[in-house]
What we know:
Layout: E1 14-17, E2 21-26, H1 44-49, E3 55-57, E4 66-73, H2 75-86, E5 91-99, E6 106-110, E7 113-115, E8 123-125, E9 134-143, E10 148-155, H3 162-169, H4 183-187, E11 194-202, E12 209-213
Amino acid sequence: MQQYNPPPDTGLALIYQDDALLVLDKPSGLLSVPGRGADKQDSLLTRTRQRFAHAECVHRLDMETSGLMLFALGKHVQRMLNGLFQQRRIRKHYVAVVDGRVALPVGEIHLPLVCDWPNRPRQKVDHALGKPSTTRFRVLAHDTSHDTTRVALRPETGRSHQLRVHMQSLGHSILGDRLYGSVDARSKASRLLLHASALTFRHPASGRPSTFYSQAPF
């Protein structure tokens, strides 16, 4: 198993703050919440609570994924935000760079996913036991010199590793993906080129529509 080497703590990348919630930009390589074992306690939640003691996590990003994460300030707001996620009233948008040329300009992927227990944390497509999952994608640009495609991804469901498995299922692994990528796709990037670039939701306290953005660092 690969050793956990989180990025240096240079302070929180705070995108937004009010009395109810925080929006932070997570760096690639940092756990969203503490993992198992004393060597995996450093996480964005741990670092956030050093400054905001009542911060609560409401969703997660894979360790290798960078980008926007939403935190509640207190249990009451956490329950409200959890409700919005369960009702799919929080829209998440991602940017990724994938291997090869994606032919279709737009499309949808519908696949049932389940944990591949002998090989966890890997997920797999299982039409008998898997839970439904849907991702919408849109091509942003092709890079013919490197044989890659930049895509916008919008998951309609929130299954573990959903975007990574869905793109791999199309034959276009996300660059730098050590779990699902081909040897060629892994070699083209030093990190997973997947970034949570936008969050849109109605503020749980005010009801105002709110959208937050983060530019992909790749």
